[in-house]
Write a structure and sequence with these properties.
Helix content is 54%, strand content 10%. It has 426 residues and is of the alpha/beta class. Helix 10 crosses helix 16.
Length: 426
């Protein structure tokens, strides 16, 4: 990575502490990704993005702001990128995936809280994530009690807008979500000084759906046996989709998908044909949280699909454009895409998530399902028992795992994952 200390200093970052993070990330990335054998050449682009994760993209965001644009940060896929783009803004995912930020979060939050929430606040409070320092507004959402209360604290340190989320998928729930999208659009109009137009919304919908389609194309190739790219690499691609320039990301991922299609045609893969195939479901897996995928794949299992917010939930559903293309109708269509198509554990009941897990397990020919939860992620942990029963009824082997960002449980996880893999081989 080039020297960006001047830029970081201008953002008011804690340079000494941030340098420690920058020193640690290349080692973790190298051990996780660069030691893999037979990686697709197209992954070089994503290597570069991670190498410049706090540099090049931040410089691009600051250049956008200098030209009068605005940057919005979020933690959740319920925040529609289409609306931000329609107002000539940029939406980026915020730092929340490393133990590095957890201690600063625990200074203001209880220890028995989800690591993702603690890391998110810690990244802001410690001034070691330039994305937090670059955004003009953070959009939070009430998808769990931990986030709901944490936003009260985050609002003391950063410009924050909170979307309310319904608890049930019902007509009343949809009406609330649609109202919240309208309110968010008005807040973003205030932020940008622009008026939301049908033309802008159509442009945003088209661009984001192109990103979804290329991820769909890449993920579909993981249905092959042997798999043309590892689960680690597929996860990395989808993680980068949350903050990379959309047009550049689409072009690079199209090229990677084409390379993987050629691999499938040749019968070439990164695991031996017949390796046990795993579907992962549960909590989001945010950069640089690559713990589970690394352990699973170095234990001989192939992670072939992720049913979570950094996996298929992010891109599977597209916007069904209405015949009448005015702003209210387009916001209606967006609301249906997000409300109807994403089965988050914030909803109760949430049988549709179990339907998705079963469907994807069949489509990707998964031999087993791993339900991966961060410690104290109550919503997903409570759903585990009903998911277990559903998969047992479907005859699909199941393993539940609980972890967090801290090191120290790798050997325990490895033992359980290896035992699960042996049971699948038998």
């Amino acid at each position: 990575m080039a020297d960006y200390h001047g830029m970081w200093q201008g953002l008011g970052m804690d340079l000494e502490t941030h340098d420690k993070l920058c020193d640690a990330l290349p080692v973790l990335f190298g051990e996780t990704f660069l030691e893999q054998e037979n990686r697709p050449a197209g992954m070089d682009y994503y290597n570069m993005v991670i190498a410049e994760v706090h540099g090049l993209r931040i410089a691009e965001l600051l250049a956008h702001k200098e030209q009068g644009g605005r940057v919005v940060g979020s933690f959740c896929i319920y925040v529609p990128e289409e609306i931000v783009l329609a107002l000539d803004g940029i939406l980026v995912g915020l730092c929340a995936g490393s133990q590095f930020w957890v201690p600063a979060g625990e200074a203001v939050l209880p220890r028995n809280l989800c690591a993702l929430v603690k890391a998110g606040l810690g990244a802001q409070l410690s001034k070691t994530c330039p994305y937090f320092q670059s955004v003009d507004l953070i959009v939070g959402e009430n998808t769990c009690d931990g986030k709901k209360k944490a936003w009260e604290i985050l609002g003391d340190y950063a410009p924050l807008y909170v979307m309310d989320m319904p608890n049930r998928k019902s007509p009343a729930g949809f009406a609330l979500f649609r109202e919240e999208l309208g309110a968010l659009a008005r807040r973003l109009e205030e932020l940008t000084g622009k008026t939301l137009t049908a033309e802008g919304l159509l442009r945003g919908c088209e661009l984001v759906d192109r990103k979804r389609r290329v991820l769909d194309r890449l993920y579909a190739l993981r249905k092959a046996d042997p798999v043309p790219l590892s689960g680690r690499d597929a996860l990395l691609v989808s993680q980068i989709a949350f903050y990379d320039d959309p047009e550049r990301f689409i072009a690079q991922t199209e090229a990677l998908a084409a390379e993987c299609e050629a691999r499938v045609a040749r019968g070439e893969g990164v695991f031996p044909k017949g390796a046990p195939r795993i579907l992962v479901t549960g909590t989001p897996i945010v950069v640089p949280n690559w713990k589970f995928h690394t352990i699973a794949e170095t234990s001989g299992l192939a992670v072939v699909v992720e049913e979570n917010c950094t996996g298929t939930r992010y891109f599977e559903q597209k916007v069904a454009l209405p015949e009448t293309k005015d702003v209210p109708s387009l916001l209606d269509a967006l609301a249906h895409r997000y409300f109807d198509g994403i089965n988050c554990a914030c909803f109760s009941p949430n049988e549709a998530r179990f339907d998705d897990v079963v469907r994807l397990a069949r489509e990707y020919r998964a031999d087993g399902v791993v339900d991966l939860s961060l410690s104290f992620c109550t919503t997903y942990q409570v759903e585990e028992e009903r998911l277990r029963k559903r998969l047992a009824a479907e005859g699909i082997p199941f393993l539940s795992l609980e972890t967090d960002y801290a090191p120290g449980d790798e050997e325990q996880l490895k033992t359980r994952i290896e035992a699960f893999g042996e049971s699948l081989r038998r």
